Amino acid sequence: MVSVILLKPLYQGNIGSVARAMKNFGFSELVLVGSEIGEEARKMGMHSQDILDETKVFESLEDAVESFDLLVGTTSYETDKDNKFLKMNFTPAELKKKLSQVSGKTALLFGPEDSGLTNDELARCDMTVSIPTTGEYRSMNLSHAVAVLLYELSSLKGKRDVRIAGRKELDIMRKNIEEIANLAGHTEKEKIFNEMIGKIIGRSMITGREASTLIGFLKKVKGELRKIN
């Protein structure tokens, strides 16, 4: 299941256009953060009133993403250089391939039209995706970007039995790795290290069973390091 989250959209018309694109490609769950459904959104939504009627509204991003297993941030910035690891993104086709391997609740997160997602907001995502566009003008209209991604993902079909690790499991993994790093004395560039670990875990699309096994292993490592310290 793939949902769309709009973080503080500036224009009601774009909310309606996004709902319309979702209707076009068979997606139904729209989430708004820091906004609401207004008259202009209704006008632009055309035959997607059912999606607008069922839109979930939250005040904070933290509350909005709580129920999702995988959070995918969208950005116009991309690089293929390994020294820019935190800025390396999937293409829509690569994202589809990843999602085709597992089941779970996935959210596509889109930022405000004028600025997009901040670095901190992108750091909260499990992975990021960029739509390949011309280098002369990379930024796309919000509803157009949503349409491109949903068109690509609309071909995902069939039930996938392999469950992706949930957000709670991923958070436990990250916390254990961070604690192990601290016990091992690895404190240099701590924030960057923690963000990198989060991205590695997100891109790996770890399954529930794998997460359980890794968590058990990490806890044992942490216990042994505490004995030494």
Automatic annotation (TrEMBL):
GO biological process, one term: tRNA nucleoside ribose methylation
Ranges for domain tRNA/rRNA methyltransferase SpoU type: 2-151
Keyword Metal-binding: no
Pfam families referenced in this protein's UniProt entry, alphabetically: SpoU_methylase
Domain of life: Archaea
A GO cellular component entry from the record: cytosol
SUPFAM superfamilies xref list: alpha/beta knot
Single annotated GO MF: RNA methyltransferase activity
Keyword DNA-binding (UniProt): no
Keywords: Methyltransferase, S-adenosyl-L-methionine, Transferase
Listed NCBIfam families: rRNA_methyl_1 (TIGR00050)
PANTHER family hit by this protein: TRNA (CYTIDINE_URIDINE-2'-O-)-METHYLTRANSFERASE TRMJ, TRNA/RRNA METHYLTRANSFERASE
Family: Belongs to the class IV-like SAM-binding methyltransferase superfamily. RNA methyltransferase TrmH family.
Protein name as annotated: RNA methyltransferase
Source organism: Candidatus Undinarchaeum marinum
